[in-house]
Design brief:
Length: about 325
């Protein structure tokens, strides 16, 4: 009887040691995770994160630069990620499956197939409530084109969409176009030495006929009316391969330009669009690593609520 009691006590001690080691390991992992996101994101202090959520968040933050990029995850954000969240890599695989493209092909071959699809159809119908249009990736702090690290996110979005439509410009050439077109740009409108652009600068350069402007005369503004109108126009831009360029404060300390390259629509039980759970796929020129098909995601409602202006741009050849 005494031996059984000793064995039972030993077993309890082993279980306790194992539990302590497991808890210590979890605390260490949490500390490593918090260190990785420090300066890039905050999470609610009273919310426990699964390993799945941590991996998703780290994939979203990969390549982002401290001091410029910052996102505050809310409880609703965490709930969304638990229900629908995927790492960027997993999202790319899911998107290719919806586009009926073999994800195991070399990346350039995948991109070529997407371009061929777009060439063969001026308008892509959404598939399983998903739409996508390819926009090449460029980095706004490319040392060869922006060695002074000016805040040229608008320049870079225009460069990417202009390239999509067949005309290539360097960031320096786009800077020259903005300089020639707009006295406010020449005067450094924010007075911070960064030569940040406005939506109007992008439009002037897109429509202007003299090099280094793009001579895309059908390019135009669109003024957003409300959330429903915004999402419809964003989907139109994707489906007609004229992606929307939009200024936003989403995940940015200063305001930032994004290009909307895709969407995933989800619905409520009554059949109406669930804007809080529908997703936008974004090109983010601030991402130093450069995504494959897109760089980050945002829910439709969150992105709309963080808009910088109600005016967006469509570049149309």
């Amino acid at each position: 009887m005494k031996k059984i009691a000793i064995l039972a006590l030993s077993l309890l001690i082993l279980i306790g040691v194992f539990s302590c080691e497991k808890e210590n390991s979890k605390l260490q992992n949490d500390a490593i995770f918090l260190k990785k996101i420090e300066g890039l994101a905050t999470i609610p202090s009273n919310v426990k994160l699964s390993d799945k959520i941590k991996n998703i968040i780290l994939s979203e933050l990969d390549g982002k630069e401290r001091g410029l990029f910052f996102i505050e995850y809310t409880k609703d954000d965490i709930s969304y990620l638990e229900k629908y969240g995927k790492t960027i890599e997993e999202g790319h695989l899911e998107l290719l499956d919806k586009l009926n493209i073999n994800p195991n092909l070399p990346r350039q071959e995948v991109i070529d197939k997407i371009k061929l699809q777009e060439k063969n159809q001026t308008h892509r119908s959404s598939s399983n409530n998903t739409g996508y249009t390819y926009v090449p990736y460029y980095y706004q702090f490319d040392p060869n084109e922006n060695p002074n690290r000016y805040y040229w996110c608008g320049h870079t979005c225009l460069k990417a969409v202009g390239s999509k439509h067949g005309k290539n410009r360097t960031l320096q050439q786009i800077h020259q176009a903005f300089w020639a077109n707009d006295p406010l740009y020449r005067a450094d409108r924010n007075n911070d030495g960064q030569y940040a652009s406005s939506v109007a600068d992008l439009k002037y350069a897109a429509r202007g006929s003299n090099f280094p402007n793009y001579d895309y005369p059908n390019s135009s503004f669109d003024d957003l009316i409300d959330l429903a109108h915004f999402y419809q126009r964003a989907m139109d831009g994707v489906n007609y391969h004229r992606p929307m360029i939009m200024p936003s404060f989403h995940a940015s300390n200063y305001g930032h330009f994004y290009t909307i390259v895709g969407y995933i629509t989800r619905y409520k039980s009554n059949g109406s669009i669930d804007y809080n759970n529908s997703l936008l796929l974004l090109r983010d020129v601030l991402d130093s690593s450069g995504g494959y098909l897109y760089d980050m995601t945002a829910t439709v409602e969150t992105f709309f609520n963080n808009r910088n202006k109600d005016r967006v741009l469509f570049v149309r050849p």
